[in-house]
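Side project, low priority. Logging it here so it doesn't get lost.
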Amino acid sequence: MTNAPKKPDPFDPASLRIEPAAGSGSGAKKVLLHLSVRKPTRQEYIRAHSAPEFRLSMAILELKEERETYAVNPALVAELVGDVRQVELRLCITRSGVVFLWPVPLPSDDGRSNAWHETARRAVELSESAWVRISANMGAGCYDVAQAPDGISGPNWPDTSFAELLRIAFGKGRLIDSFDHPVLKRLRGE
């Protein structure tokens, strides 16, 4: 009989234990690789960046079923009326540090009022200086806005230019800059 050496137990706590500082990421900098373009959820308290250089009036095209949002070059907007929305894209952050871009609808050109859009614009204005949460009020046809109590620390914004944030959000085919873009071809049935 051979006495084969006994293999160590991979589930022995001693073989899995780390020192508390080992995985802390001390000195590590978070790299922003993905940036959603979306409304805040009703469970999130958010802040919007107050600096004008972190907002942009622009046109977007949303594919609701795919949950995809595309930036649209201004030269194409006139040809895509009915498919695009004009928004003010706002840099926002949640209490847990999730950064996203909120496409807040701009006022309509025809002067008609929309309480959903008006309350969204008011909420993003409030969120420049306070943590707020929005929730749909279906009965009133608008958003309800709740403000967090004072004393909560401010947001920790990423050290990234707005141009780079736009590149992260709309890179890899999410900028519609020609009529030959695959999304426009699909909308035309090609």
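Brief comment: Residues 33-187 form one domain.
Revisit when time allows.
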